[in-house]
Amino acid sequence: PDGVTVARSLGQDPERVFKTLVTRGASGGYYVFDIPVADTLDLKKAAKAVGEKSIAMLHSRDLLPLTGYVHGGCSPIGMKKQFPTVFHESALDYDAIYISAGKIGAQVELAPGDLLGLLRASTADLIVK
Q: Does pTM top 0.85 for this prediction?
């Protein structure tokens, strides 16, 4: 099931549930973006947020070897290597948000300020409007 369905089945507001997306920049660097589950990542906005000319979504087959996580259970916390991470700016609108706990169907609720501090992450407008 998609993230919105999962959020609603758990009684969570989909705007507070963030999905983790891993990308590769034109320079070859990897970047992590976290956006609300109902939204779509705007690749141009994401590239601008990390100073890349362009970025592309990482292929699902490359996710596990790179991050240690499978598609649908990817968390910005605990990847094999810490990559530059950017959350959609709406994360700061809430006292707490949900992210994947690292396996399909498991989520953890955290204060966005604490999460961004832990990951040394930033925020930006990242979604298609």
A: yes
